[in-house]
């Protein structure tokens, strides 16, 4: 079977964990059962660059059940679960190219191997696959029908490509679906980012000062979880609307220059470059812990931290699994979790399956929607169709046994009328 994993002997253990996650993903499971009969993706070639987790495995199984020919690689060098990669290859027959901790050259080689399927549809998480495809294989990019993008960072990159006239096919911004960012980004990231920090550090959050950098949906979720565990939360923002929201949610708000001196734990969630930088390290307490919940490892300027620590004669050392300690010349220690990479997957298992059920149902149905389009969409970034978003929410409520109200014909008419008034 085509693919590359760390150890084929992990396949059975991976299968057990994939089946456990499947039991918590009823919406995706329903779609897979339906697609086993209807086969809406028959013969469709799909290149996927996603976090290789148990939840992703169930998405791949769903696409496969629908008839797609799928190849999968990792969208982050530290996010791969090696037993899952082994199970996908040897238990489910999905060509998978992913090894946890793989160096950069292997990471990009795996992306190219996935693109060798000559895809009609791409699935990305961070836009690395799309960018490689456009830079190195423009003729292939021209033949792609469409794609999907899972995360905020990827959507930002794709919109930049579209603005430059570089994006050659339509991509559905799954991240922007209500059933994705309202739940996955907020509840998923909030819980899993804190989970990663706690597994790596065993920090007592209660009474700690937690600095959340960025107050988008991910930052909101992290701040809520930290506050719920007893932390004193400071929010760092550059957007006045988000800063005002953080203040009204009860958090202190200040620039990073001020927050640096107060924080015990810092978690970045901006998707931007060097939001924690050299001047901030110089103001931090001894023992400050830094973690990143953004997609790429650029939010914490680790090169600057290495340069600051170099004169001490004590290079970074691993003090716990997934925790590196940098000692500054004055003796202060700064600790970085998961090498500054995505903490929820670098030091934990990622989002709970129950919330990924929503996001990956969006992914699956968006791929089917793209495959069914008789006329191709224009190149650019497109929203998830409202009917897909709403259908996923309704399916999820049904699996939870939750019933909601319905408008009467009179109420419907009133909402669509302008004649009625006071």
Automatic annotation (TrEMBL):
Record-listed substrate binding positions: 53, 125, 150, 180, 184
Which residues take part in binding NAD(+)?
151-153, 185, 214-221, 237, 293-295, 344, 351
Gene Ontology molecular function: adenosylhomocysteinase activity
Cellular component terms per the entry's GO annotation: cytosol
Pathway note: Amino-acid biosynthesis; L-homocysteine biosynthesis; L-homocysteine from S-adenosyl-L-homocysteine: step 1/1
Mind listing the UniProt keywords for this protein, alphabetically?
Answer: Cytoplasm, Hydrolase, NAD, One-carbon metabolism
Record bears the keyword Phosphoprotein: no
Q: State the HAMAP family in the record.
A: AdoHcyase
| Functional description taken from the UniProt entry | May play a key role in the regulation of the intracellular concentration of adenosylhomocysteine.
Q: How is this protein named in the record? A: Adenosylhomocysteinase
The organism encoding this protein is Limnochorda pilosa
């Amino acid at each position: 079977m085509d693919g590359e994993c760390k150890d084929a002997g992990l396949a059975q253990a991976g299968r057990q964990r994939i089946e456990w996650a499947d039991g918590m993903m009823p919406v995706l499971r329903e779609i897979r059962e339906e697609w086993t009969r209807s086969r809406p993706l028959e013969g469709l070639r799909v290149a996927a660059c996603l976090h290789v987790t148990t939840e992703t495995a169930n998405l791949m199984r769903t696409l496969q059940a629908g008839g797609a020919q799928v190849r999968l690689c990792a969208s982050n060098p530290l996010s791969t679960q090696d037993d899952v990669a082994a199970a996908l290859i040897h238990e489910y027959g999905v060509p998978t190219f992913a090894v946890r901790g793989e160096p950069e050259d292997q990471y990009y080689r795996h992306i190219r191997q996935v693109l060798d399927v000559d895809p009609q549809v791409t699935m990305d998480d961070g836009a690395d696959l799309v960018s490689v495809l456009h830079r190195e294989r423009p003729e292939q990019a021209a033949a792609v029908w469409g794609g999907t993008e899972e995360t905020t960072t990827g959507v930002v990159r794709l919109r930049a490509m579209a603005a430059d006239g570089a994006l050659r096919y339509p991509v559905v911004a799954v991240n922007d679906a209500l059933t994705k960012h309202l739940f996955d980004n907020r509840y998923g990231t909030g819980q899993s980012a804190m989970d990663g920090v706690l597994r790596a550090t065993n920090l007592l959050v209660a009474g700690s000062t937690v600095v959340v950098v960025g107050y988008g949906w991910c930052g909101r979720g992290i701040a809520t979880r930290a506050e719920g565990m007893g932390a004193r939360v400071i929010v760092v923002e550059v957007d006045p609307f988000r800063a005002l929201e953080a203040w009204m949610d009860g958090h202190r708000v200040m620039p990073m220059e001020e927050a640096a001196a107060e924080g015990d734990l810092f978690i970045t969630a901006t998707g931007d470059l060097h939001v924690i930088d050299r001047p901030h390290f110089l103001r931090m307490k001894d023992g400050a812990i830094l973690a990143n919940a953004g997609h790429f490892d650029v939010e914490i300027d680790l090169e600057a931290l290495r340069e600051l620590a170099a004169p001490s004669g004590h290079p970074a050392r691993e003090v716990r699994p997934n925790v590196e300690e940098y000692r500054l010349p004055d003796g202060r220690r700064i600790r970085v979790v998961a090498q500054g990479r995505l903490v929820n997957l670098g030091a934990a298992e990622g989002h709970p399956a129950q919330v990924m059920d929503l996001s990956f149902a969006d992914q699956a149905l968006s791929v089917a929607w793209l495959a069914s389009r008789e006329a191709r969409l224009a190149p650019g970034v497109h929203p998830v169709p409202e009917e897909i978003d709403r259908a996923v929410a309704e399916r999820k409520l049904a699996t939870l046994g939750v019933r909601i109200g319905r408008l009467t014909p009179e109420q419907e008419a009133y909402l669509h009328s302008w004649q009625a008034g006071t």
